[in-house]
Specification:
Blueprint (H helix, E strand, L loop, with lengths): L1 E7 L4 H15 L6 E7 L4 H7 L5 E4 L2 E5 L4 H11 L1
Parallel strand pairs: 1-2
Antiparallel strand pairs: 1-3, 3-4
Pfam family, one: Glrx-like
Protein name: Glutaredoxin family protein
InterPro entries: Glutaredoxin-like, Thioredoxin-like_sf
């Protein structure tokens, strides 16, 4: 199973948009193909130190996929090669 990690924080407009893109793309895939987890830089000092100026950040299986803006087409392509 592929894991997408969305790193953001509360009250972050770009994080909300990224979440919608991730949810839309994942909904197109088989039900158990992708696990999505969300982490907040507001709750984790280490995440904050690493990512505070790049949120939202999307990781696929722990590897950086992108930050700031999430492209649905690019995410689909990455997930098709990850499976």
């Amino acid at each position: 199973m592929t894991t997408i990690t969305l790193i953001g924080k509360p009250d972050c407009h770009l994080c909300d948009v990224a979440r919608e893109v991730v949810e839309t793309v994942v909904a197109e895939l088989p039900e158990d193909a992708v696990d999505v987890e969300e982490l907040s830089i507001a709750e984790d000092p280490a995440l904050y130190a690493l990512w505070w100026e790049k949120i939202p950040v999307v990781l696929i299986d722990g590897e950086l996929h992108g930050h700031w803006r999430v492209s649905p087409d690019r995410l689909r392509a990455a997930l098709s090669t990850a499976r």
